[in-house]
Write a structure and sequence with these properties.
Blueprint (H helix, E strand, L loop, with lengths): L1 E3 L6 E3 L41 H11 L7 H27 L2 H12 L10 E3 L12 H9 L1 H13 L6 E9 L3 E8 L5 E4 L5 E4 L2 E5 L1 E3 L2 E5 L6 E11 L2 E11 L4 E3 L3 E8 L5 E4 L2 E5 L5 E9 L5 E7 L2 E4 L6 H7 L6 E4 L2 E4 L9 H11 L17 H15 L3 E17 L2 E14 L2 E17 L2 E6 L2 E11 L7
Parallel strand pairs: 3-5, 6-13, 14-21
Antiparallel strand pairs: 1-2, 4-5, 6-10, 7-8, 7-11, 9-10, 11-12, 14-17, 15-16, 15-18, 18-19, 20-21, 22-23, 23-24, 24-25, 24-26
Helix pairs in contact: 3-5
Length: 483
């Protein structure tokens, strides 16, 4: 007969007091006798049943008590890496759900459309698979919306409510990381035709040549391969009466209609700031001389011509107001007389924001250097203007001179150039005549860096500038000799 050691689970002799395998000591188990109750001499025949464990149960109990081996270092590393990856995936999904949110994608799409300096290819798709979407191919679209920011901002509303906006609509074109929907501005392609009135004409879009136009009736036509809509610069080369002419045209192309590149020539005289650079259709065509003049003889005129002047003033590069549809103004004139005809040529005077005229500058400065007409309303900030205070003190000094009878001034404008911030930089002279008791004095003072601002159809003085005496002549009214 055997029994199971409760400590190690081995089979041992039933009457063993110690386990020969693990040394476990068994407790004595004497036969229990039934207690005799007082007043009762009869022995109890009821025995208490002691449950006995089988060998299998004792082995299972032993195994359950067996301590588990500690986790290996390798397993710990594996489980740690898995845990970190799970956390990273959760964080990535939370970030992606926000970054690739539909509204956030719409904001990035529209922001890209307004910035030609940003690569917008990832935000644009086309309904025509023949149109390749590249950084360069989407720039005309970006240039258009850069000029029409209100239309670009309207796209945000249209995209969010699901409306189409002309040739542009929001479309889901895939997924990011197989998880987040990818949205793009899907654009309808256009295939316009270029039309001109001269044979053997070669056309380009930007720097890309499209080849020569072919005759179609009385015109010459070239169909442009499918492309994205936008603002494009076209150029055409033709031989007209033995002369090679090049004309350019800037067009906002949003349909497959004809683009007219007919060529005729005119003589243009541009009058603006000295040494300014003249641009036609964003291309430099010449530089103004020291008097601010440039003559372009027999210059080719095309549809949608634009002209502006750019110059550097006081270390700032400024640009005049752009003349749009110059060809229209040449044919029909304009209300502001920026373009006028003089004999066989056209005179063009681009406007500058804040640039005052000679008459405006002469009037306000003549008033300022005359005590009787000095008015604080002619100055920026009124009576608090530093130049107004300077002139007031100057007149008081003249009035305090005992032998000075009268004085008067004469203002001559030498130059007016743009200064930015709705202001002009003016150089002028003031000729003073002082009548003393014994002599008259004539002084010429040149003022530079004077700043005048434009206020509707008049000018105001921000500062009179720095004065330098360039001539001083004294004429005696007695027998004294002249100085």
């Amino acid at each position: 007969m055997t029994k199971i050691c409760p400590n190690c689970g081995k089979d041992i002799k039933k009457d063993a007091k110690f386990c020969p395998f693990c040394g476990y000591k068994f407790k004595d188990n004497p036969k229990s006798s039934a207690p005799i109750a007082h007043g009762n001499t009869q022995p109890s025949h009821q025995a208490t049943a002691v449950p006995q464990m089988s060998k299998q149960e004792m082995r299972r109990e032993y195994k359950n008590k067996t301590p588990q081996k500690p986790m290996s270092k390798k397993n710990k590393i594996i489980y740690s890496v898995i845990g970190v990856l799970v956390i990273l995936l959760i964080c990535f999904y939370a970030w992606g759900s926000n970054y690739y949110n539909r509204d956030n994608q719409i904001s990035r799409i529209v922001s890209s459309l307004k910035n030609p300096n940003q690569s917008g290819a990832q935000y644009i798709s086309c309904d025509n698979p023949e149109v390749k979407i590249t950084t360069e191919s989407v720039k005309p679209l970006q240039r258009y919306f850069q000029d029409h920011t209100t239309e670009a901002d309207q796209l945000i509303t249209d995209f969010r409510v699901g409306n189409e906006s002309g040739n542009v609509r929001l479309a889901q074109t895939g997924r990011y990381f197989l998880l987040f929907p990818k949205y793009t501005a899907q654009v309808t392609s256009v295939t316009p035709k270029l039309v001109t009135n001269h044979a053997n004409s070669e056309v380009k879009i930007g720097k890309k040549s499209l080849g020569k136009l072919t005759k179609s009736g009385s015109s010459y036509v070239k169909t442009i391969p499918a492309m994205l809509p936008g603002k494009y610069n076209f150029s055409i080369k033709s031989n007209v009466e033995g002369r090679n002419l090049t004309a350019t045209s800037t067009n906002n192309v949003w349909s497959s209609n004809n683009i007219n590149l007919d060529i005729h020539t005119e003589t243009l005289e541009i009058k603006s700031v000295p040494n300014g650079i003249v641009y036609i259709n964003d291309k430099k065509v010449g530089t103004l001389n020291n008097s601010g003049n440039l003559v372009l003889k027999d210059y080719p005129i095309t549809k949608n011509m634009t002209l502006y002047v750019q110059g550097t003033f006081n270390k700032k590069t400024l640009t005049s107001k752009k003349i749009s549809d110059l060809d229209h103004d040449l044919e029909y004139g304009d209300e502001d007389n920026v373009v006028t005809q003089s004999g066989s040529k056209y005179v063009i005077k681009p406007e500058w924001k804040g640039l005052v005229t000679d008459d405006e500058a002469t009037r306000v400065l003549t008033s300022a250097f005359d005590k009787g007409s000095l008015d604080e309303d002619d100055f920026v900030d009124g009576g608090g203007n530093d130049s107004y205070g300077e002139l007031t003190r100057m007149f008081k000094t003249y009035d305090d001179e005992d032998d000075l009878r009268t004085y008067e001034s004469d203002v001559k404008i030498k130059s007016i150039t743009p200064n930015g911030n709705n202001s002009s930089l003016v150089t002028y002279t003031v000729t003073w005549t002082f009548e003393h008791d014994d002599y008259n004095r004539h002084q010429v003072v040149e003022y530079t860096n004077a700043i005048l601002t434009k206020d509707d159809d008049s000018a105001k003085i921000k500062q009179i500038g720095s004065g330098k005496l360039i001539k001083d002549h004294k004429v005696s009214t007695s027998n004294d000799s002249d100085d």
